[in-house]
Amino acid sequence: MISTNPASSPGGFRWLQLAIGIVCMAMIANLQYGWTLFVDPIDAKFHWGRPAIQLAFTIFVMTETWLVPVEAWFVDKYGPRIVIMFGGLMIGLAWIMNSYASSLVTLYAAAVVAGIGAGAVYGTCVGNALKWFPDRRGLAAGATAAGFGAGAALTVVPIANMIAASGYQSTFLTFGIGQGLIVILLAWFVRPPHGVEAPRKKRLNLPQSAIDYTPPQVLRTPVFWVMYVVFVMVASGGLMTAAQIGPIAHDFKIADTPVTLAGFQMAALTFAISLDRVFDGFGRPLFGWVSDNIGREHTMFIAFATAALMLLTLSTYGHIPVVFVLATAIYFGVFGEIYSLFPATSGDTFGAKYATTNNGMLYTAKGTAALLVPLASIISSQLGWQAVFIVAVALNATAALTALFLIKPMRRAFILGSEATASAAIARAKVFPGEGGRLEAPMSYDRLEKAP
């Protein structure tokens, strides 16, 4: 029997918390990765046009990401359980609204509701994982994000089949209610690492800050903004591909072409989306684990460079069904690592105490990147999908070089400087004990500033 008392089994309990977070993330995955299956059916019914419909996707991503810091504040004040329950309610309501939407205004309103709900679940689960696993941040963040990346893998085929059999409106309603209820139920079992101290971070061959920086202090650091820009460059290509993979396959005239791989045969589009989710989900914890061992920036370089190569392959040979399926699978296998590496890098750089809010601020880069998704539809209509892919290739290649030759030295210098500041403050506290007698490390930066 699994104990739900953290004090009784802290080691096993934190893995239970990780598992709950993964399942909750899987329940919100279709809000992003299943959306592409609904675009053409919605357009066929109402003839609003792809760019207008895809604006709902952009609104969803912007709302999901830009409100995460606010939702993280509620987590810090009221705990993760209530925030995740609220998120489950909102994601269920959003898909119910989608099922009845007969105007773009309603579709956009549902996207706002969905974004609020998904952000509440996403930010809380990733932040909780970072706090429970200071010794394995890359792996924990990657495993949690894998729920979001791979969660749609098991439901892509059922959703596609239900849309074909019962229509997209019934599909929205059924899956919306089911996903929302599961998140609300699991929220009852989510706990932060209070009452038992999470394991201390082990000594890794990675630069990790001895100071817990507050969110306002993080926003004043140049390294945060360089990381933010790189996040935007990489996320823009992935969001475009995730949202537009259906229209791309239809424009390449391969969506319904049968593809056989490893004894499985499916239509190219369905096969691609299913395989994309599997590779995406597998890649997030894998690259998180790799980064725990070889470093965050080296892992970023490998992943971003591979993503650029796959996008270049799609621009040239994407009209070949088997190439389309395999190239998109490999691309998503390396793209999803941004959702494990950037949270882990944020925790390493700015500390664990405010990890939920600090990572939430960095995660808003995904919302900024979402602004480019409708632009991709406009460019493709004028210049074709090849032009869109070439832009994405350039962004990923630039991001790979920036990670290795700019972020790495900036972050190391920043962390070494923080360690020197912490050591000096501790030394002063020993000489001038003050009221508390001593200072502890790691500590929050505001405490350092008040040290004698």
UniProtKB/TrEMBL annotation:
It comes from the Bacteria. Residues 1-411 form the Major facilitator superfamily (MFS) profile domain. The chain crosses the membrane at residues 12-33, 53-75, 82-101, 107-127, 139-160, 172-190, 223-246, 300-317, 323-342, 387-407. Keywords: Membrane, Transmembrane, Transmembrane helix. The keyword Membrane applies. InterPro entries: MFS (IPR011701), MFS_dom (IPR020846), MFS_trans_sf (IPR036259), Oxa/Form_antiport (IPR026355), Proton-linked_MCT (IPR050327). CDD domains: MFS_OFA_like. It holds the Pfam family MFS_1. PANTHER family: MFS DOMAIN-CONTAINING PROTEIN, MONOCARBOXYLATE TRANSPORTER. NCBIfam families: oxa_formateAnti. This is Oxalate/formate MFS antiporter. It comes from Bradyrhizobium brasilense. The gene is oxlT.
